[in-house]
Amino acid sequence: MALEYLEAKNYQIISTNVFYPVGELDIVAKDGQTLVFVEVRTRQDNLFGHPLETLTKVKQQKIIKASRRYIMEYKIKASSFRYDVIAILNNNIEHITNAFYAKW
What we know:
The protein is of the alpha+beta class. The protein is built from 2 helices and 5 strands, in the order H-E-E-E-H-E-E. Strands 1-2-3-4-5 form a 5-stranded mixed β-sheet.
């Protein structure tokens, strides 16, 4: 669902489900010349909270570490980098651009 959403927004999907010992990347895409690392959080209901509430600082740090490894491994060329989050709750999508930042 997240992939279809991003493709409809003209994002170019580069990779999905990239695993490293330091963390995981759900979706790596390009939005124009910007490389975007997209974390996808899903819930069937909000009984245990909204999907965005599950994105902890620790999880963010793992995503940042994995993204650094990805950039180094694939020698990615992009004018900028960004971290987005897509929250899916009851088949409704909420997309937050620049959801968090990394110090480079």
